[in-house]
Protein 1
Amino acid sequence: MLRIDALQAIYPDLEDCIVVTIMGAVAAELYSLGHRPNFFYLEHAMGLASSMGLGIALSMPEHQVVVLDGDGSLLMNLGTLSTMARYKPGNLLHIVFDNESLLSVGGFPTATSSGTNLADIARASGVPCVKESGTIQSFQVSVSEALKSKTLTTIVSKVEAISPNSFHMDLTLLENRFQFWRSLQVMRNQSKTRKTERNK
Amino acid sequence: MPVSVTNSKLIYEALKACDVKIMSALPETWLVHLIRMADDDPDVTLVRLAKEEEGIGISAGAHLAGVNSALLMQNHGFLAAINPIVSLAQLYKIPLLMLVSYRGYMGEKDPWQTQGGLATEPILRALNIPTWQLTSANDIYPRLKDAQTLAHASLLPVAVLLTRELMWED
């Protein structure tokens, strides 16, 4: 399975979610499918996309957060699985694209190429719902079920270690940061307004 | 345990006055009362971390989602979190209010804390992180408020060092 195809299949589901991605191929490919102000690309600090997602999910419990993680990044911060599992925000979906390599920095194999199983680690960490998907169709189904379930879910999806044609993104880090922050503010205000109208 | 309950309480009240809603923490002796207060407070989400690095990500997420947070960590936890402080908080202009227990400095009895004590201030200076030292109870409220104000105005991390004089009652 190609990561870009998997992303394309779930792109309609992501459009209205708060999305945090890791650096490299995942960021470039999501961006190439169409940037949105509610997408944040963490271009450094490897491992912390899921921690950021947790911070957002706890702060905005009425909004769905999706983290697009990778095997190399997750291996750098395995403790995040136990911390997410401890607080289990039902509005957090954690997707891990496992290409068994550090693709963006030379393609060296990670430990998932020699037997480490991230889905098993997620389960053993206490993540309430863990799924593995190897085909586009099962991936798409897993994502849409997870979004409906209101249960913290980790989906580990094996993908081929193929780079995008270009890693170029016409978006500066700070532009992305401030746009994302503003977009989350708008989302919060909209849900506040909806609440007030309901209570009238 | 001779950790000051009175001063821990003042620190906690000052954090509440700063409208802090999320506190991330990794237990350490000087922070026990603060962590318990956060745990008992229904208006605060205490996030118990596996490692301090995660706390930088959680605070970054909280800030981008419009929520004030604070990090409770030992200075060795600060040392463990340097990469994300630089390559998330400083790179992306994210304010952080870091309360750091200043172990390994004057009066420290635990030999294993001493090397980190020597490294703490030089590293804070090297990273250009504005730093208050809290040594007296009277400073707690204004200095925490000022630290948060600067963090939000500069959109950068600031550190408040919790010293032995404040936290420990021999």
Note: Chain A is about 50% helix and 20% strand.
Protein 2
Amino acid sequence: MAVIYRIDMSEQTVRAEQPGQSYRELGGRGLTSTMLANEVAPLCHPLSSENKLVISPGLLTGTGAPCSGRLSVGAKSPLTGTIKESNAGGMAALALAALEIKAIVLEGKPEDDTLYRLVVTGDGVKIEPAGDLAGLGNYDTVARQFEEFGDKVTCISIGPAGEMCTSAASVAVTDVEGRPTRHGGRGGLGAVMGSKRIKVIVIDPTGGRRPKSADPDAFKKAARKFAEALKKHPLTSETLPTYGTNALANVINEAGAYPTRNFSQGQFEGTEAISGERQHDIIVERDGMIAHACHRGCTIKCSRIYVDENGQYVTKGPEYETIWAHGADCGIDDFDAIARMDRLDDDLGLDTIETGATIGVAMEAGIIPFGDAEGAIGLLEEVRKGTPLGRLVASGAEVLGKTYGVSRIPTVKGQSMPAYDPRAAQGIGVTYATSTMGADHTAGYAITANVLGVGGNVDPLQPENQVELSRNLQIATAAIDASGLCLFVAFAVLDDQNAMDAICEMFAALLGRPFTADDFVGLGKEVLKKERQFNAAAGFTSASDRLPNFFKTEQLAPHNATFSVPDEALDEVFDFVE
Amino acid sequence: MSHVRVSLYATLRRYIGGAASIEVDIEPGLTVQDVIEQLGVPPGQTRIIFVDNRAADLSKRLEGGEKLGIFPAIGGG
């Protein structure tokens, strides 16, 4: 029987709850956003006892569906002030699902600064003091848990950034090898976990089993159909496992949409040196690993293991967004330096997108010059030391930019833009402006049709058709985020009806009732409605659904492009919400 | 005689011995497809095409002096 655990950190109590009707058929972002909309005051301070951190596997997680091990973490974001869902791979979602835990909800806040850990087993959840972990990086933190509990556990943790409650702090999840490399990065949810003084959640899935489907045979058939569709699409079967997410670097650079030196140009002269092709060659030469799965059951295997010139482990991937943020956006083309920074971000517990963009703004501010890799690493070391400058680096681009008088800050609702310039990819610009999450790329990944020729073609340099593209993708993504499926299945879904059909058939077999594409769309719309309503009550208006003005006026080379989707059109994205 | 610079990416680099780009002599009026076939790249393996950083397809005619960027199916995030 599925259970929701409520951990009250004010009273230090644990309550096990049977999910009521409204939560029973929800998972992932569907559950986190619904719970937050129902239970959290939209005007609360995100670091106060009134906020809640909801940790939830997806509806399909643990069923054996391919690529379904994603974890959703939700709260009111300290970075944006909006409702927030942050999504991570790794092994935690599978572990929670094996124990039939629908959600762990962190509530309240201790009166003092004592650090705690939670130990989650088939018998329940224990709150234990964990002062010995204070100040440790994520790597040392989880190493101690594996030493104590063995390899079978999986960990959700925060680093020093989360302990300091800085707004770019991430929530780390351990991967198949037990390393804290998969992060719920966006929006500073690590700070919410830190405000509730929880350093690590250790999950032991021993004794757990698969969630039961209403129709197990139909489920198996649908899951097989889904696996076949993923195998058929060249992206999910060949390019992603071979080159990983950073295959994008050269494409986005060719398109003139690769934000360079704090969004001042659309192409970077050092792209080849930090490309997916170069990354592949380095990893193969040095005997790292390509085609690596971040969680068991993933068939796409976009992850990889990066090693130094001596073959010693450095970090995973790194991923496209991370490489862009610490690379082109900072004018840095030294791959090993970028990999070191990825390792530092993971250990400190920082969102790599936000942190790279913040360093880019720090460079614009003149704190260090563009291209200074050692200087950038030095800024991350300031975070570990907990100096005022370090706290600024860990607080996101908007805060750091403000304190240094920078006027070109690439954020929406306080969150930094990821690795696509909205002037040369106007569809993603619409998503940045209007998403309930702030400037976010996965929330409605219009790059598919803007650049990649997936799910159609929409000219990235024109304002037409971008609103419809972004809206449809935002709706579909909200539904995928509720399912526990990795968003990369969307590449197959957008091109192959069989993939979409298979997802609906899995849902139907799991729930024991019909589930069609319309239901899938309906699920996505419901989630977005709740998020929009929360944000409106938190004080957000259409004025918040805009890009910073310089994107409309400053021309971006090589296309001399500006963002030209009219404001009235942006206000139509959510026309399905009354 | 004009030429174009052709950059091939990801799995397509194997057709030019692993190099990142190559200069190709062309008669003006040849299409993108003509050029890549000359290099031994199967058109069916190409998915994303840029000519001077703008999206194009295999049928686009070239004049000479253009920069081509040719990709297989690519995605990421």
Note: Chain B is about 10% helix and 30% strand.
